[in-house]
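Supplementary Methods, section 5.1.

A reviewer requested that the exact input to the structure prediction be made available. We therefore reproduce it here, unchanged from the version used in the analyses.
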Amino acid sequence: AALDISTADFVATCVAEKSELVDELRKLSPAEVLVSESAAWIHDVLSGDAAGARLRIETRPRPRTQLMARLGAADRSFDDAEYAVALQACEMVLGYVVDTQDALPKHLHPPRPYSAKKQLLVDQTTCRHLDLLPEKGGRSAGTLLGVLDDNCTTMGKRLLRSRLKAQSTDV
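The structure derived from this sequence is encoded token-by-token as follows.
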């Protein structure tokens, strides 16, 4: 599950392999990563590929739908058994938001499911060679992001960047 609290972009997916999870973390470039105690192995990944992301190991189990129910009805895709872990991840994220913000922000909506397999993973080398995105801390002039970005808000800029990093394969 991933949440951008400023844009209320709340998504969830399921992956079968650790390598797929690593790919998703690369694509999302999160500032913080919450994991259960059983997934503490992700620390090694974060120290290499997603450097800069803070790791928090969640030890308190939460009732599965306690916070999700406050957001309203979730997408029917979450009724599928394969999304059970995704719902637990959503609940963990919402619990963290409540812990740090003292409440769920009113602009949040239920998460939407997405298939990681229907998004093209664009690695850093490809981004650099195709001039899609600037290097970290670099200027966006001369990149596709620089050409397309007429956004007035930071939220719009982040959304455009995330769409360029995770392009749909569903044409």
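Helices lie at 18-28, 42-48, 68-71, 84-101, 124-130, 144-148, 154-165. These observations are discussed further in the main text.
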